[in-house]
Fold this protein.
Amino acid sequence: MKHSKIGLLYILPWLAGMIFLTLYPFVNALVISFTDYNLVRKPNFVGFENYISLFRDADFLSTLTATVKYTIFTVPLQLTFALFIAYILNFKLKGINFYRTAYYIPSLLGGNVAVAVLWRFLFQQDGFINRFIGLFGAAPIPWLSSPNGAMAVIVLLKVWQFGSSMLIFLAALKDVPQELYEAASVDGSSRFYSFFRITIPLITPTIFFNLVMQMVNAFQEFNGPYLVTGRGPLSATYLTSMYIYDNAFKYFNMGYASAASWVLFIIIMGVTAILFATQNKWVFYSDEGN
Amino acid sequence: MGMRKTTGMMCVAILAASMLATGCSSKTAEPVKGETAGKDAGGEVALSFSWWGNDDRHQATQKAIDAFNTAHAGKIKVTGEPSGFGNLEETFATRYAGGTAADIMTVNYPWVLQYSPDGNGFYDLDQVKDIFDFSQYDPEFLKFGQRAGKMQAIPYGQNTLGFYLNKSAFERAGITELPKTFDEYKKAAEAFTKADPNSYLIVSPTFRFAAIYYLQQKTGKGEFADDLSMNYTQEDYKDALIWYKDLADAHVFCSRKDYIENVGNEPVSIAQNAKFINGGYAGVLEWTGGIASNAKTLSDKGDQLAIAPLPVIDGAKFEGTMAKPSLTFAISKDSKNPKAAAEFLQYILNDPEGTKLMGSTRGMVASKAAKASLEADGQITGVVKDAYDFTEKAKVINNSPIFENATFTNAYEKNYEKFEFGQSSADEAAKAIFDAISEENAKLKQQYK
């Protein structure tokens, strides 16, 4: 009992922050979502009107499509790249620590305004990327002014920030017993075969963890698209998070924005639940004896 | 063991106490009525002043603040809180709702109605008539800052929408006389695009400016009547879409595609845009409030900005443009030192020294004292003088206070974009604009009746 009291005291700072900075706004948003609060006037209760309006709002539905598209492109690419680089960084090579640090830096800088400005410069009509591909005779690509181009730009920005996933994969790769590779090698297994038959199955818990975390992040992504492309041409990069922001702070529809944020939360919860339900089929935990 | 436990509990207690302490701000102290609150131990009143703009405006304003602080050393100290043009409404809304607005705020003209429909959204400036000299202003012009009979904000000056051209770029293209009609603009665009196929004559922060310019001339009315009713029909919006696209295809107006590529998605000031500075955009359709910034960035490159005559569409019922108060200044209703805040306003808006330092970075001034000070200091020369003359002579229709509602601008931008990208017809885009504006207009009429 005494131990649990002391433990509670130790986590009190975090608990206070969690209650006042996360839980309270969380519940408050739910309450506001049933009102017509607009920041200036007193809120009036409107029942489920905001939620019903949301599903009749073509703009909101198109932001959900854009967000799902963004997630489908970004997450697999980011995880694949992160695993590939982690695999290479797992070798004992000279200067490997330098490369591990260098590959992690984009994760620290990614949401930065300076990086967003730089990213726009890179992908402008006469930016570095078009000049580079022009060296090979290719015509300039309208990255920022075409719907697919704009989506590619923000996907690439997110994929570039693969560092944190890479570090987690690296730690998982280091945990794979070397004896397994040695035994496989003795039996004539190639590196390629060992990777898919030994490495991947043993790191599926880590893959699952990264998949869930990156999926949740992608659904909530705001900084990159907001700073680099904005809505994008034909609202191609207008993600749900930006829609919520605009409704709250541009159009002053706080109640409506709160309803949209709760719908997004439920969608993320649903997708996470589906991933958890499917993990039995492909995630192998070492303590299960499989 | 007991010692370790005690030490551990002391560490936890210190951690928890420091976490609570960081959550506290200086404003959690017991509120003090009158002018004593907000004072530091030495009795100096601390005020904050928020504004938005480009670098030239920030520098000029900070000079004025520093001079005021020097003149009032030990009594009043003002801290500046500048920001850029982007997201200024969202920033203002968040600060206002959170009770963290600056003591003296720059307030966009439509926000006076939005935040103070009943005249209680800002400090009542009639209470400081003994400090701020309202006689320097035209009484009719002051009405832009009044709500429910109370003086809520002081309008700084008039903003007039005009065509400002890079005269040097035109001369380089072999055009010595600036265009006066849209046909002349089309001919000029041919000359420009021969040298640079990606150039455009006029860029505007939003397609809506050009569309309303056209519709005002076509109908002779502003977009909204005094009772906030809509003046334009769906057919009017369709005509505006087709007219603009025709001129965008001719490279007179910037296409939406090019704007997204080279400026961004949002309506922002073009003054510091690379394509504008390099002559890829040979002019802007903008408010006079931005003319000094636009002229400065061009002059840094050796180019000259000039105000072009207002082109008139065929069959126009009105041969002018639109205008609005450029911006207003208000004192927060939560300010603990409104009288000191009024002293600062008097300094930057009417005082000879203060107005000289503020300069013309916010456009034309409405205060007679401010104008006299700028003239005496030789600041009303060149393109700034041209802007004053233009403002005085131009025929204008004043914007309704609901004009700048974000939903309206979004409806124009989004649907023009679809039309230009071939995703909708002119009829569909016009209907979408008309429906979106009608819906929002109905809500606003209900809200402000």
